[in-house]
Amino acid sequence: MGDHYLLLTPGPLSTTPSVKAVMLKDWCTWDDSYKHIVQLIRSKLLHIGRASEARYTSVLMQGSGTFGIEATIGTVIPQDGKLLILANGAYGKRIEQIARILGIGYRTLEFAPSQIIDVEQVDTLMKQDPAITHVAFVHCETTTGILNPLEQLVQAIKRHGKIAIVDAMSSFGGIPVEVEKWGIDYLVSSSNKCIQGVPGFSFVLCNKDELAKCKHNARSLSLDLYDQWQVMEQEEGKWRFTSPTHVVRAFSQALLELEAEGGVERRYVRYLENQQILVHLMESAGFKTYLHEALQSPIITTFRYPDFEHFSFESMYLFLKERGYVIYPGKLSDVQVFRIGSIGDVHLEDMVGLCAAILSYATNIGE
Question: Domains in the chain and their CATH numbers?
Answer without folding.
Answer: 6-11+263-365 (3.90.1150.10), 17-259 (3.40.640.10)
